[in-house]
């Protein structure tokens, strides 16, 4: 049974940490203008709630997403804008590669999925060339996650949101970059790419006081 990544609340020292996933404050993307976007679906027999996450194509046989989206049988859907009106192209994931140092505190929250994924109507997105590249400040996040607070329903159409990264882009020592404000990703968009100048520099991970993205240049090896 397909299910949504459940909302997780951790109250520690007054800080609320949640699974990332909603794009609040976004707008509908131009249909099929993000050909790297992939819809990830998990099947777990003991969970009865349907749902999905997002990830993105980085090579013809690999997609990148958040490690906390792992679990159960995984399939991906490509070439979709409106999930209620388009079938897209489904592919089963053959193997998942979690970062070996991923933990429940969302450190190293990054994962690669391997399978026969590439199709005629999708295109991989580029990655940074070196680990020393500075992340541009003005970026874009896209996804099908929730758009209205307190309404547990994903968007049927792909949403875009412009994000401006904090001045202190490396917001911690855990290979992360951050943005601030009420708008941004939260539930249902885990694994979304943070795209800056047409390159994927981050992966939507978690939210505390900030929106947190894994810093892809640190994981190029």
UniProtKB/TrEMBL annotation:
Residues 1-20 form the signal peptide. The keyword Signal applies. CDD domains: Tryp_SPc (cd00190). One of its GO terms (molecular function) is serine-type endopeptidase activity. Keywords: Disulfide bond, Signal, Zymogen. GO terms for biological process: proteolysis. Pfam families: Trypsin (PF00089). This is Peptidase S1 domain-containing protein.
